Amino acid sequence: MSSSTASPRVAAALPAPYRDRLMGCARRVSFPDGARLFEEGGAADRFWVVRTGTVALDARVPGRPRAVVETVGTGELVGCSWLFAPYRWNLGAEATTPVRADEFDARRVRELMDADPAFGSALGHVVGRVLAHRLSSARIRLLDLYAPHGSGL
């Protein structure tokens, strides 16, 4: 489920020198349809920017199948928990199509952010915008799933 407002595209949201610095840390990876990228509660030691394909972000719901919070695609960030201690995933993620992505080592990127506060601020603002969008998407999705039909919520 994608909300009507697109999630910020990571590369487009960063000024060129910062985008180049971030992409200098990238490693190309691919995932087959159905592959789990990470599980809720696991160590958030990397993140991805999708090149092609789609990834569903999901939450565990006791006694039910995972609830898809949002589906992200080309240019979008997969994983935000890498930026905030204790560095544990707050959601899970699964490829819903074959995915090609740029993968980043979270520790290395945090080191770059610490070494250059302007870069750190720029990337932190991008991740913050992604988080705000994801929170809104999660709220809408939860209302879709659990609000009484016809309640106006």
UniProtKB/TrEMBL annotation:
What sequence ranges are listed for the domain Cyclic nucleotide-binding?
10-113
Under PROSITE patterns, the record lists: CNMP_BINDING_3
InterPro entries, per the entry:
cNMP-bd_dom, cNMP-bd_dom_sf, RmlC-like_jellyroll
Where does the signal sequence lie? Answer: none
Task: Mention any Pfam family matching this sequence.
Answer: cNMP_binding
- UniProt-recorded name of the protein: Cyclic nucleotide-binding domain-containing protein
Biological source species: Streptomyces sanyensis
